[in-house]
Amino acid sequence: MRTGRDLILATRPYAQDIPWKSWLYSVSTLLILAAVNTVTFLPIHIGFRIAASIFSGLVIVRMFVIYHDYQHHTILNKSKPATFMFTLFGLYVLAPASIWKRSHDYHHNHNSKLFSASIGSYPIYTKEKFKRCGRLEQISYLAIRHPLTVAFGYIIVFMWGLCLQSFLSKAKQHWDSLIALILHGLFIYATIYFFDWQTMVLAITIPFMIACATGAYLFYAQHNFPGVEFKEDKIEWSYTHAALESSSYMVMNPFWQWVTANIGYHHIHHLNSRIPFYRLPEVMANIPEVQNPKTTTLNPIDIYRCFQLKVWDTQKKQMVGTR
Question: What does the mean pLDDT of the chain come to?
Fold first, then answer.
C-alpha cells in the first residue's frame, strides 16, 4: 500500500483541470441559481416561491464548493473571465477571496495539528486545557462549536467571522470583506424597497440561512467526527496521515453529492487539493489506498454524534465530550 509522497504522486494524473467541464459546471450552476432565485421574486403561489427559496440555498452550496475549487487554483486557473466571475460570487456569498483563501490554505497545510487546528477551522482544545480555562473561556469555546452557531452560520460564521472580523483585524488586507458586507446590505435594502419583506426573506434570508448552515456543518463534520485524529507533536504529523485519518468521507446519495459538488470525498480533497471536484469519484474508484476512509453521513444520528465531540483526550487519543 502506497503512503506519503508515493500516494500523492498516484493522484497526480487526476489533478488535471478539464476546462470545458469546469466552465460547464460553473456556468450551469450559476444559471440554475439565477433561475430559482428569480422565482422567489415572482407574484406566484407562495408554495412555489418557498420551494425555490429552499432550492436556491442548496444551489449556493454547490456553487460555493466550485468557488472553493477555483480558490485552490484547481479549476480555470489564470482565466480572467473566471477570476471576474468567482470574485463576484465570493462577495455575493460573504466569503471574499482574500480571507477565504488565506485561512483555507492555512487549514490545508496544518490540518490535524492540534496546536494550530483552530486557524481556518473550528477550535480544538485538549481535555486538560479545557479544564484549566476560566469559565468564560470555556463558554466561548463551547459556543463556537455549538449546533446553534452552525445553524446561524449566515450571521456568526460568514457575516461576522469571514467579513466583519477579518476587516476589523486587518482592514488593508481584507478590504473586500467590507465590500461584501456593503453589497449584501444594499441587496437586502433594494429587495425590501422595490418588493417587500416577504420577498427579502424568500430571496435572501432563507437561501443564505440554508447555504451557510449547510456549509458550516460540512466544514465542521469533515474534521470533527468519531475516529478523527489530531497530532500534538509537529514531528508526529504528516500530510497524508492528516488527509486520510483526520478528514472524513461523508457518504451521500446522488442528490447530495450534486448539491455539495463531491466535497464529501474530503479525505481525497485533502490528499491533493488540485483534483477537480468532478474527478474525486474517479480517484475513489481507482486508488485502493483511499477506499477505506473514516466515514460520517448527514443522518441525524451521525450529526448528533459529531456535535457531541468537544475536546481532544490526550490519553484516549480521541475526541470526547466535556463530561
Answer: 94
**310 contacts 320 by C-beta, under 8 angstroms:** yes
Determine which helix (DSSP H) or strand (DSSP E) holds 311, and give its type and residue range: strand 311-313
Q: How many CB atoms lie within 10 A of CB 146?
A: 15
Residue 113 gets which letter from DSSP?
Answer: B
Beta-carbon count within 10 A of 317 CB? 10
Distance CA 22, CA 82 (A): 10
From the number of C-beta atoms within 10 Å of its C-beta (0-12, 13-18, 19+), residue 318 rates as middle
- Residue 116 confidence class, pLDDT cut points 50, 70, 90: low
| pTM exceeds 0.90 | yes
C-alpha of 17 from chain center:
21
Residue 121's pLDDT band, with cuts at 50, 70 and 90, is confident
Phi, psi of 296, deg, nearest 5: -150, 175
Partner residues linked to 158 by β-bridges: none
